[in-house]
Amino acid sequence: MAASQEKSTFRMAADAIDLATVPWRTLWTGSTMPALGLGRFGTDRFTGEQVAAAVLEAASVGYRHFDCAPVYGNEHLIGHSFRAILEGGISREDLWVTSKVWNDKHGEGDVIASCEQSLRDLQLDYLDLYLVHWPFPNDHPPGCDIHSRSMDAKPHVHDNFMTTWRQMEALVDRGLVRHIGTSNTTIPKLRLVLRDARIKPACNQMELHPHFQPPALFQFTHEQGIVPIGYCPIGSPNRPDRDRTATDTVDVEDPVIVHIAKRLDVAPGVVCIKWAVQRGQVPIPFCVKRAQFVSSLRAVVADPLTNQEMSDIAAIDRNCRLIKGQVFVWRDGQSWEDLWDPTGDITPP
Ligand SMILES: NC(=O)c1ccc[n+]([C@@H]2O[C@H](COP(=O)([O-])OP(=O)(O)OC[C@H]3O[C@@H](n4cnc5c(N)ncnc54)[C@H](OP(=O)(O)O)[C@@H]3O)[C@@H](O)[C@H]2O)c1
User: Fold this and answer.
1) Catalytic option among 63, 72, 130, 231
2) Greater model confidence, 147 or 292
3) Which of 32, 110, 200, 318 has the fewest CB atoms within 10 Å of its CB?
4) Average pLDDT rounded to a whole number, residues 158-181
5) 201: CA distance to ligand 1 center in Å?
6) Which of 85, 62, 20, 80 is nearest to 293 (CA)?
7) Is the pLDDT of residue 5 over 60?
8) Any idea what the CATH number is for the domain that residue 66 is in?
9) How many angstroms does the Cα of residue 237 sit away from the middle of ligand 1?
């Protein structure tokens, strides 16, 4: 029965993982977040009802961290799961819920309205983390092909971004969100936010998996006391064809990952999760299958990878960005690389 149609009930599973053993990350505010979350973007492979039902089931085995966004189209369904979890006895303080403001809601007044809508949909009084989903104020239709480009696409302009950020700060002031952060940003963009922010980002959500480790950005976030949250942590192996290019590599087929997976008797994807937590990022794999999310959580509480395995995985970085952001290109003749400030300076408008 769909999560939206029937009042769900929640109870911890008999085989739940001991929460005291799950690693946590401490943010600059002193708050802690679970070091493993669950991404909730089902693409077109899973319905919103399936994604919402998996929230309930994942919470019953010990997950407490959920990564949401209005653009995933399922917050109104996931809200039923959160209500059931809270009515089932889990304290709100023990949950970590992230949402994000989408690219067409950066304007004055829009950020606050967008956050309020997410809170209504998720049936929560506050969010633990609210992110600016992309630094580009451009909408594009969900499910559009990577080769489509919006003719209205606009560049990142720091002063405009700060208009968005001031509203993010106001959300903290009003108690609607506990932390704010960035996503899909770069070192030069982050530097300016850090210079001008009244409330600095607590987290930066970024693509992170063994074949895409961006060491400089990863290091920078750590140095600045910003927790890196890693999306596509398994290399999004089953993403739709429209999100693939011919040069993309496949993390879960890498011999190093496969070899470690055999030693541990787990799926290669689980090795990617284990590596991510051990490296110090917060992976948010997408998953609706109980056996998979249980094995991911079990792996992060089990014995660590060896130092040799950690350095073997460090050596397989292919700088293979999967989410290139082609739809955000704002000028003729640009390539998607320009979105990521390859010169070390923000690509000029
Ligand atoms: N901020 C952003 O712009 C942004 C961009 C992209 C994604 N995200 C977030 O990141 C999340 C994850 O990204 P993603 O779904 O693209 O990539 P992913 O987490 O790397 O890959 C997800 C796939 O990995 C497989 N998997 C998951 N757990 C597994 C396990 N224990 N063992 C084996 N296979 C496993 C599943 O495949 P099967 O289902 O086929 O078994 C699942 O569909 C999204 O849901 C979203 O919340 C954020």
Assistant:
1) 72
2) 292
3) 32
4) 98
5) 24
6) 62
7) no
8) 3.20.20.100
9) 8
Which atom of ligand 1 is nearest the CA belonging to 231?
Answer: 10
Residue 14 lies in a domain: no
Ligand 1 probe mutation, 134, 253, 286, most atoms within 8 A of CB:
286
Region 96-109: what's the mean pLDDT?
96
- The amino acid present at 180, given as its one-letter code, is I
Which atom of ligand 1 lies closest to the CA of 46?
39
Q: What is the pLDDT of residue 332?
A: 87
Q: Is 86 within the bounds of a domain?
A: yes
Helix residue ranges per DSSP H, the chain: 48-61, 75-87, 110-122, 158-173, 187-196, 215-223, 255-264, 268-279, 290-301, 307-314
Domain that holds residue 96: 19-241+249-340
Does 72 qualify as catalytic in the annotation? yes
Q: Please work out, in degrees rounded to the nearest 5, the angle formed at the alpha carbon of residue 215 by the alpha carbons of 214 and 217.
A: 70
Nearest CA, atom 11, ligand 1: 39
Q: What is the pTM of this model?
A: 0.96
Distance 39 CA to ligand 1 centre (A): 7
